[in-house]
Design a protein that fits this description.
With 288 residues, the protein is of the alpha+beta class. It contains eleven helices and eleven strands. A hairpin with a 2-residue loop joins strand 2 and strand 3. Helix 6 crosses helix 7.
Length: 288
């Protein structure tokens, strides 16, 4: 399964409507009429999620799984891998999503007077219970902008309004402090740290370049300087080493191992594995 990069992937989804958009900053309205389970995603922008109906269960790789319910606002930082369950209430799940890219974050920065410090717990889930005023604001976005021509000039205004409303919620000041503290991260990420954290994800080289804040050509050049190999060569090597470890320890069968190390085609995995280890994955698993 190809990992979905958000918000980019959502722009082509029939059940998601972009109310306002400028590049990768957007306000989206999402409706599901069936439960959607174990959805794997990667966030390339900061996100705020407001649940209108139903609930969403979110698992983040280095934090506890959390439940987000109707009327709650969830903050998610950029550059995280997560797995979500979308659970409908009665006939549907409904939410409004706010994705904010780095350029827009810089414009919104004046709302935070003191310079924020980066927190070490930046991936910890952050949830704010909101009042009826927030519900009316979210509802007005749908009423006014759904089905209308995109007006990007209004996007910054509506995001400023959102953050102003957050400030007047109970514990809103603390939520905003954390929002800025966790969001204002360096734009260019360390390639080695990022690759060692995410080499098992089924991402394209273009995705790795984008998520580390580089063009493809710059990413390839810097990567080769670090590893003396191309990204493609390095990824194959690291994934096969991990697969060999899993099979030798009997942790999974061949198909499960292939999927776990980023292969969605088991035949391709077997071929690559046999080329490196001179035996099939099955032979490794049974100890031959």
């Amino acid at each position: 399964m190809i990992l979905e990069i958000l918000p980019q992937h959502l722009f082509s989804m029939p059940n998601v409507n972009a109310l306002l958009r400028h590049q990768n900053t957007t306000i989206m309205h999402k409706i599901l009429h069936q439960n959607l389970l174990d959805k794997e995603m990667y966030l390339s922008s900061v996100a705020l999620l407001y649940i209108i109906k139903g609930e969403q269960s979110i698992g983040i790789y280095d934090a506890e799984r959390v439940q987000v319910e109707q009327g709650q606002l969830l903050y998610l930082p950029k550059d995280i891998y997560l797995v979500s369950d979308f659970i409908k209430q009665n006939d549907s799940f409904e939410a409004v999503l706010f994705f904010i890219d780095d350029d827009m974050l810089d414009k919104l920065r004046p709302l935070k007077i003191e310079k924020p410090e980066i927190q070490t717990h930046r991936h910890k889930p952050l949830i704010l219970s909101t009042n009826q005023q927030m519900a009316k604001y979210v509802g007005s976005l749908i009423d006014v902008y759904a089905g209308q021509e995109n007006n990007p000039q209004l996007l910054e205004i509506k995001l400023l309004e959102l953050l102003a409303l957050v400030k007047f919620q109970h514990d809103g000041d603390d939520f905003l402090d954390e929002f800025y503290s966790r969001s204002l991260m360096p734009k260019k990420r360390d390639i080695r740290e990022f690759m060692h954290q995410h080499y098992l994800q089924n991402l394209k080289i273009e995705d790795y370049a984008h998520l580390t804040g580089r063009s493809v050509s710059t990413f390839n050049r810097e990567f080769k300087a670090f590893y003396e190999a191309t990204p493609h060569q390095w990824l194959i090597e690291q994934r096969l080493v991990k697969a060999h470890e899993m099979l030798s320890e009997g942790k999974a069968n061949v198909t499960q191992t292939a999927l776990a190390v980023g292969y969605d085609n088991v035949s391709h995995f077997i071929s690559a594995y046999k080329k490196k280890y001179k035996q099939t994955p099955k032979q490794t698993k049974i100890g031959k």
